[in-house]
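Data card: per-record layout.
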Amino acid sequence: MKAILRVVINISFAILLTGCITVSQHRFLFDFDSGEVRREYRNITSQRGADEKDYSVTKDWDTLKELIAEQKSEFDPEVVEDISKGMFEENNVLCARKIQKVKCPKCFPSKAAILSYVHDRDWRFELINEEIVLFLPNGKKIVSTNGRTVTTPKNSLIFWPQEASNFEYVVTEQLSEGTSLLPYYLKETGESSFQEITTFNEKLFRLGTNLEKNPHDIQKLENLLRENHQLLAEKGTLIKEEIFDPLDRCIPETDSSCNEQVEEQISFIPGPEEKNIFYKYVSERGIYILTQSSKEGYIDETKPINLMKDGKVIFSGVVCQGTFDYPLIYMRLIEGKLTFDYLDGPCFNEQTNEYAHMNIFYEGRNINKEYGFKESRYLFSYKGKTGFILEEEKQDYLYFNGKKISSGFDVIRSYSHEDLSPPLFKLYDNGALLFGARKGKDNYIGEIDLNKFL
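The structure for this 454-residue chain is written out next.
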């Protein structure tokens, strides 16, 4: 007999196959406010049908690819728009995701009616006594839901209040194990895809073996990530920072083209051959001058340096330049406020027997002293709240609004001179923060939603 395709209830659909493609678990989410419908299918496998004589895993893989590539709309396109669908690897199994959008949720007579419309007929939704009730088909077991569950020996039900805006459930299929289609996916894509790992706070994407070979190709990594995974960052706009760029040098006093350049970005300006003045940083917001009472022609790492603006000292202290090109690292303006990182104190303190610790200056604030930390770097700000990378007990964490918000990593990538894999740290106006990190031998791209910590 010909088995019914079970994978992707709604990735394609009611198609008869010579093989049987199954999933062990699937997740459904619907956001009434945005109209977004998301379905995710985990552990896609191939199984032989009871009376199949010409069964082939390869044929099932080819069929699955055809279903993913199918452009025919499942629903009336005037009612439900297809946004995206695709396959990806997660925790060493093959998964699939389909995203659609109900164009006018309020045009339906009820939320139960919407849910019924976007499900197969054996998924029954009813509006009963101001509650939306889902009667699950036979063989489905509830794993999790944001509704309230009632389970009897013969029935499983999920209840949501009528005023609910978000509907989510995860169910399992009562199926025997089949042959994983993941090897076919990895072989055909030619890349070890990102492995998606969801932790309590952040979503991590581990770089596969082939991606590790060229981790510096950030644009390629980002494109691959966005093609196969839904990111919060895709719905936001990148927040651009005004950066003092050490690679773009000019002298405004002698180079008229520099004035045009300054209008577009902050430019790093080497100082003239004057004693005590080592660097000038020029921006539309003013000129910053780095000085030191040294007559040696180079910065003395045992004496204080002074950063001045408009004739006033805004920063003073002993700074270790170390292996960095400049004593003040990654100078930039965030929301119009000056910030930079620096190695605080002499390179080695004989009294404490410690090397200099990384610290942050932010508009007159000493971040290590303010928060009581030894090591901090790379400040960011979102909705008036301060965040940065915190190093504690040889682990890097994301710290925001007074708390750790990420897992610990061996390193969270920030500066372009590091051994980067990958050098990625981007903040979006919707609160999405993308970052690169390493833990052990594995490299990751992570995404975290800062709105959860406001």
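Known properties of this structure: DSSP finds seven helices and 34 strands in the chain. Residues 57-69 form the longest helix (13 residues).

See the next section for split statistics.
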